[in-house]
Amino acid sequence: MAEAAASQGTGPSSARRWRRRTAALLLGAPLIAGLLSGTAATTAAHATTAAASAKAQPVSRTVQVTLDSMTPSAPVKSDTLTISGTVTNTGRQAVTSAHVGLRVGQRLNGRTGIDEASQRSGYSATLDAAEVGDKYTVKFPKLAPGISRDFTLSVPVSKLDLGGDGVYPIAVSLSGQTSSQQYEQVLGIQRTFLPWQPEAVDGKKSQLTYMWPLMSSTHLTAQTGSDEQQTPVFADDALAAELAPGGRLERMVSLGDQLPVTWVIDPDLLATVDAMTRNYRVKSGDGDVAGSNQDVAKQWLGELEDAVRDQKVVALPFADPDLASLAHRGKDVSGSLSHLQGATEVAEKTVETILHVTPSVDFAWPVQGAVDPSIVDVATSAGAHNVIARSDSLRETGGLSYSPSAARPIGGGTTAVVSDARLSTAFEGDMSRATSSTLAVQEFLAQTLAITLQDTEKQRSIVVAPQRMPSASQAQTMASALHALAGQRWTQPLDLGQAATAKPDARATTRVPGSSSYPGSLRKQELPVQAFQDMKSTQGTLDKFRMILTAPDRVVTPFGNAINREMSTSWREDREGAVIYRAGVQSYLDSLTGEVRLIQKSTATMSGRSATLAVTVQNQLVQPVGNLVLRLEPSNPSRLKVTTNEDANGGQPVKIDGGHSQSVKFTATANANGPVQVTARLYTQDGTPYGDPMEFTVKVSEITPTVMLVIAGGVLLLVLAGIRMYTQRKRSTARKESGEGDGAEADGGDDPEQPSDPTPDTGPESGASPGTGEKVEH
């Protein structure tokens, strides 16, 4: 980090630093003159070597200096600045006569000065300030190779010679000697920033909105148990570690509870954790086992509910769909945008049910705030009126000398809420190291102060949209920075809803960049077109399946949520996992639809011209199914005709209880002998085929003339016998009426007790399943 060449005015402290540097230059002038004149004096040669080394000392090859803490981060006049850290000899030679000192440079020239300073490395005698003084140093007689030593510097702020309000570069350096260079030199240096605003800004403070995101990757599968509670099945139990004390999500909640932030929540995370509070299963090998982290889930949800009470909560569409992927790859696949609409509708209900607060669902958040016209169109298609963009995407083109307010009207009643790119990316990277965290906090504070000092006559709204899933250490660093702003000396908190409705700056850019400006690195991470085609296929299967169910919500809800999860932004970091997840959802749905199927049969034999054909339909689901029609379609209708039911679209209606089978019967008439192939198939009531067809053979046996004569003769004898019985009974009745025929009948040869023909069996058909190769005869 370099000092700016120009400062914002000079005060007493600046004058003192100027005098010190002037004296140093005057003392060095003879040496420089000797060098220019070509003198060979030994003293001049040593001085020249020292000056050359000091201008660009390769810090990483000699001594590494780290700053582990700096308190207070934004001091006032009465404070003592305390800086702790470590020096490590990374060279091959011992360092002797070493000491750690503090250097404070001149005030930087706004945000540009901060950016330039942050890019500097190495030590420069002309750019780096002199040490504050010997009194405020820490000495090390010897620092052997590979050895580290901790240090703590404490300096009263009044001794830093700080001038007017602004951002000052501050550095900690180690100076010493080595065996090859036996003169004092700077062997290592580390820089950061000191924001100096001892009292509340004399003017208007910046209104700072910090988005606090709560989201995670996908853990729930589409699978649920067959019990009444539909026990959910998790792909893994990794979420429990994030919710447990010290875990990423636990830290986000416990830290956010103490901060003035806007909670930005993926409702899918809430639904997933809520499912964990009850009985749940976790996949393990080819099966699943009982989950055991209900208490962890309950504790986390309870703490979150307390934290968001009376706070601004923004609910993203369910499962945080990838808006850019939808816009660039999915919108041309029919039905894709309808998923976004459904995800938005379920979001509000989910948050209200679980957290008992009413969220705003009026915000869309593309990945890294990168926008183009198609992304804006998709983002607003589900009803959002605010799109969270970022300033490195929607760039300023008007040459403003200050950072404008976040809200920008971009047409069509849509507002782009433009987050500040520098502030939003301030805490990316590894914040688990104390030095990384300390430097990030100091630069964040410096940037916020610089924004406010750009123009204190304008009150501007600044939005920070950090990474979607901060680690625990990143969350801790963000919280440290926000705590440092608690004094509200140059910022004051504002929630995201208020930032979106703040008065926009008339000179700020409102033109959405074209599609060619969308970052190629982000485009490469997008879901492929195939992903949306897979979703379309799964939705089609689900739509067909739901038509036959008597309790469709038991299936539609978990699979609808699973399809939403297939669009999640989190898959950008796991493209292989996305493919596996989509395949798993489709496979499980196919297995469920296959639970309603036809039982295979091979042949059925007809020994007459007509018979009843039976086909068995099996339902292995828990719930009953209906709205199905079974049709039989002979391959040769002229040889075999199957009676149809016009009221059932040419088939027989099917309705089966869960876990049962039904034998569906058709009347068939044969017009010729021989085998006929018959296809049995289920259809939904709208005529859509359901499941796989089943084929079997109907064999019609030949009926000979002799058999026909025998049958005809038998029928004739039965008719004659009936006539004779009728005549005999009539005569008997006549005799009784005339007083004749007591005792035996007149003809004396007929038995009045002779039984008639047996009554035909017209009882109901058996519901048993006809076996393979069954014989159906009538």
From TrEMBL:
Record-annotated membrane-spanning stretches: 707-726
One Pfam entry name: DUF6049
Keyword Metal-binding found: no
InterPro entries reported in the protein's UniProt record: DUF6049, Ig-like_fold
Domain of life: Bacteria
Compositionally biased region (Acidic residues): 740-754
Gene3D superfamilies assigned: Immunoglobulins (2.60.40.10)
Keyword terms, alphabetized: Membrane, Transmembrane, Transmembrane helix
Keyword Transit peptide applies: no
Region feature Disordered, mapped onto this chain: 502-521, 729-778
Annotated protein name in UniProt: DUF6049 family protein
Lineage: Bacteria, Bacillati, Actinomycetota, Actinomycetes, Kitasatosporales
